[in-house]
DNA sequence: AATTGCATGTAAGGGGTTACATGATTCT
DNA sequence: AGAATCATGTAACCCCTTACATGCAATT
C-alpha cells in the first residue's frame, strides 16, 4: 500500500466546493504541480470508486455536454480527516540529476554543465510561478481561511527551489573549474 | 517510458569495480538513500537482463555460498555514457506533507504540528548522516577521482535538507501562533 | 472552417514494492 | 544455540502513465 493518496487529493479539493474531474486535474496541474501530480487514468476511476463508497456524490449535468460535478459527503470529510491524522509516509524521491552527477566521471564536463543548467532553468521558472502565485494570493481578500496554510505550502516550494538554484550555481562554478583543470 | 533507470544505477556502480547484487543494494541504501532507492524485486531481474544484453558479466562463485559477482563490459560503459548524455527527465515529486498542509483546515493544528515535527526530525537525522559522510569522504585520501563529484551530490542533500528544516521551523512557529489565535 | 479547449473515460503496459521462499555464514 | 547478516531469487499485486477514443463548445 505504497500510496493510494489520489483519493485524498480529491476529497481535499472537494472541501473547497463541488468540481468536475477535469477541474480537479486542472487545479492539481496548476496549483499543486511543484509537489503533486495526478493523471486522468488515476482520477476518473477513483472518482467512480469514491462515489460507490459514498464519500462523494456525482451529479450529471442534464443537457448537451457531459459534465459530472462531484461534491464531498460528510463521510468523505470524515475519511479525509482520518487520513490527515495519520503520520506522513516516508517519501521516496529520485533525482536523476544526482545520479548523473555521481557518475559524472564517465562523461564529459560539458554534458554535466548542460544538465545542471537545464535543471537550474526549469526551477528558476518554477520559482517565478511560485512568486506570482504568492502575490496573487496575498492580493485577494481572504475568501477562504486556508490562505495562510497555502502560503506555507508555497513557501516550501520557494525555499526548496531556492536551494536547488543555489546548488546549481555552485555546481556550475565547480564544473567550470574542473573543466580548466583537465 | 517513465523510468527504467535501474539499469544505469547498476552500470554506474559497477564502474567503481565488480559487485554482487547484494552489494549494490547496500550501497544504494546507504550512500544513495537521500536521492535514490531500489528494491531487490527490481535489481535481480535487471542484473539478469543486463547480463543477457552483455552490458555486464556474471561470475558465480564456486563453492559453498551462492554469490554472483557482476562486472561492467565495454558495451555497458558505452550504454552508461549514452544515458549520461541524455537530458534529465522532469522528476515527479510527491510531498504528502504539503498535501496535508494544504488541507490543514480540515484537521487540528496539533495534528499538523506533529507531522511537521516528524518531518523535521527525520531530515535533521538525515543531515547528520550527510555531514558524517562528507567528513568521511574528506578525510580519506582520494582513491577514486570521483570524490569531488560525490561531494557535490552530498552538498545537494545538505542544502535541500537545510531548506526543509528551515521551513519546518518557520511552519512550527506559524502553527503555534495559529493555535493561540483560535 | 478550423483550431483550441472542455470533458469523460478505458486499455495496455511498465515500473516498483512487498512478501515470501530458501539457505549459508558469522557473530554473540 | 540462536540471532543477525549475507545472499539470491520469484510472484503477486498495486500504482501510475501513456495513448487512445469520443464528442461538444467556444474562439479565431
What is the gist of this entry?
Two copies of one chain form a homodimer. With 182 residues, the first copy, chain A, is mainly α. In chain A, 65% of the residues lie in helices and 5% in strands.
Sequence of secondary-structure elements of chain A? HHHEEHHHH
Reported for the largest beta sheet of chain A, the result is:
2 strands, antiparallel
Whole-number mean pLDDT of chain A: 94
- N-to-C span of chain A: 49 Å
Structural class of chain A: mainly alpha
Which residue ranges of chain A are poorly predicted, with pLDDT under 50 across at least 5 consecutive positions? Answer: none
- Using the alpha-carbon principal axes, give the shape of chain A: elongated
The side-by-side strand order for the widest beta sheet of chain A comes to 1-2
Largest interface: A-B, 64 and 64 residues
User: What fraction, in percent, of the residue positions of chain A are helical?
Assistant: 55-70%
Q: Please count the helical segments of chain A.
A: 7
Question: How is this structure best described in words?
Answer:
Two copies of one chain form a homodimer. The termini of chain A are far apart. The first copy, chain A, has helices at residues 6-14, 21-31, 40-52, 74-85, 96-102, 109-139, 147-181, and strands at residues 56-60, 68-72. In chain A, strands 1-2 form a two-stranded antiparallel ribbon. Chain A has 182 residues and is mainly α. Chain A is elongated. Chains A and B meet through helix 1, helix 4, helix 5, helix 6 and helix 7 of A and helix 1, helix 4, helix 5, helix 6 and helix 7 of B. The first copy, chain A, binds a DNA duplex (28 and 28 nucleotides) through helix 3.
Amino acid at each position: 500500500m505504497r500510496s493510494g493518496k489520489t483519493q485524498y487529493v480529491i476529497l481535499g479539493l472537494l472541501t473547497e466546493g463541488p468540481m468536475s474531474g477535469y477541474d480537479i486535474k486542472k487545479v492539481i496541474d496548476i496549483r499543486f504541480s511543484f509537489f503533486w501530480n495526478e493523471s486522468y487514468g488515476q482520477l476518473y476511476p477513483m472518482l467512480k470508486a469514491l462515489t460507490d463508497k459514498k464519500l462523494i456524490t456525482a451529479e450529471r449535468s442534464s443537457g448537451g455536454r457531459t459534465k459530472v460535478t462531484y461534491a464531498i459527503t460528510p463521510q468523505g470529510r470524515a475519511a479525509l480527516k482520518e487520513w490527515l491524522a495519520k503520520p506522513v509516509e516516508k517519501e521516496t524521491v529520485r533525482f536523476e540529476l544526482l545520479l548523473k552527477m555521481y557518475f559524472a566521471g564517465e562523461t564529459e564536463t560539458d554534458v554535466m554543465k548542460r544538465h545542471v543548467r537545464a535543471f537550474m532553468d526549469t526551477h528558476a521558472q518554477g520559482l517565478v510561478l511560485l512568486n506570482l502565485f504568492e502575490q496573487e494570493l496575498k492580493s485577494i481578500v481572504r475568501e477562504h481561511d486556508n490562505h495562510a496554510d497555502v502560503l506555507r505550502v508555497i513557501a516550501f516550494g520557494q525555499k526548496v527551489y531556492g536551494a536547488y538554484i543555489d546548488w546549481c550555481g555552485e555546481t556550475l562554478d565547480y564544473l567550470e573549474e574542473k573543466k580548466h583543470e583537465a
